[in-house]
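Page 42, continued from yesterday. The earlier attempt failed because a stray header line got pasted into the input along with the sequence. Redoing it now with the clean sequence only.
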Amino acid sequence: MKILLTGATGYIGKRLLPILVAQGHEIICCVRDKNRFYTPKKFLNNISVIEVDFLKNETLSAIPDTIDAAFYLIHSMSSSATNYDEFEKISAENFVHRLNQTQVKQVIYLSGIVNDTSLSKHLSSRKKVEDVLDTGNFAVTTLRAGIIVGSGSASFEIIRDLVNKLPIMITPKWLNTKCQPIAINDVLEFLSKSLLNPVTYGKNFDIGGPDILTYKEMLLGFAKAKKLKRWIFTVPVMTPKLSSYWLYFVTSTSYKLASALVSSMKVEVICRNNKINNLLGVQPMTYEQALARALIKVDEDKVASSWKDSLVSGRFNSNISEYLKVPKKDCFIDRRKKEIINRAFTIERIWSIGGETGWYYGDWLWSLRGFIDKLYGGVGSRRGRTNKHEIHSGDALDFWRVLYANKEEGKLILFAEMKLPGEAWLEFKIINNTLYQSATFRPKGIWGKLYWYAVLPFHGFIFQGMLNKLIQ
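This time it went through. Structure tokens are written below.
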């Protein structure tokens, strides 16, 4: 069957793709920027990639008429736009308009549990998208999930950051709100088993694990899994804004996502029933089992996808292709080069840079820069990286975004997502037996120029030290 997969570069989409390929389907992946889509060689014969922006109706003509089913996995909860709910509605309307012109039989939408009369902004937006999809000339299957637990999920990362960093937590009272978490593997099983399954047509289902827990119990459950002693005290005086800042500064989440999460966490998200478990033959795992599996994936460096790699985790709002060509005009450039001893060794060092590995030289200065960025509302350096030794175009890398990564060519280009009075690139490329390293800064106005000269004294220390370590 020919399946349309929207959100193919997202947390769920990246994990669902190999499952659909294994089932023998032909997959049409919708992405806004082909340069961000990494295609494993073993999938090349089973997938095709099209560039579609659902906010731009004219781009939807790229969707073929012959699709049999579609997954709608588009969400904008952590978008920098305050009216993301309106964008989600427009995207859904454009999607329905185009799919009404195709032969599609079913659309599967992953939504949020909305069993409360007082909904947060993002859950209300999800429900409005459901209503829009239901107007189409096709069967809609809506799966509503609460907290998704898995390596790389936003919920898992936030829980991990809080437990690992805070032995004692003074927390807002919404930590006593109940929810019904579900493992990412179970979400994927529900999605794949719903595909072209008539028993799910025209229906919505709540999906969740067997445990109903408070957020406090989830944190303590993680601490138990890690064999850590943690004490949590809730207080009624933390406003939503203070709660958002609490999550923002302690965890790797963005402020926009933190605000959306705080708003949602005040509402109980518990499944109405579990009848879909019997319909599809799925037995969801417990929260403890979901945590154990996620921790194994993290320890083995086998995280398949991460919410941090989404563009909404940072400040990058354009297509990568617009920044691939590093400018020279009206720019300050720090250029350095050095003959390499072992090409393979140097490439591995470059491809492992950032995250837990660090930047090889002056790490405390890189950490300080990330901390300052966080104070000013930037992404900071807490995003780290999804995998320790693999990077692809579009990945987040501390406070950088990967624009280009070609291991065979020996070329890596990063773009700064920290708050700057200008734009910055960091480039590594190996030509013959020489490593060329360049830091390019395009200033905006007088403040940009002053910034460059203010940090210039540190360049010789940091960049030359890093270059030397990449060779040794």
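Notes: DSSP finds 13 helices and 19 strands in the chain.
Reminder to self: strip header lines before submitting.
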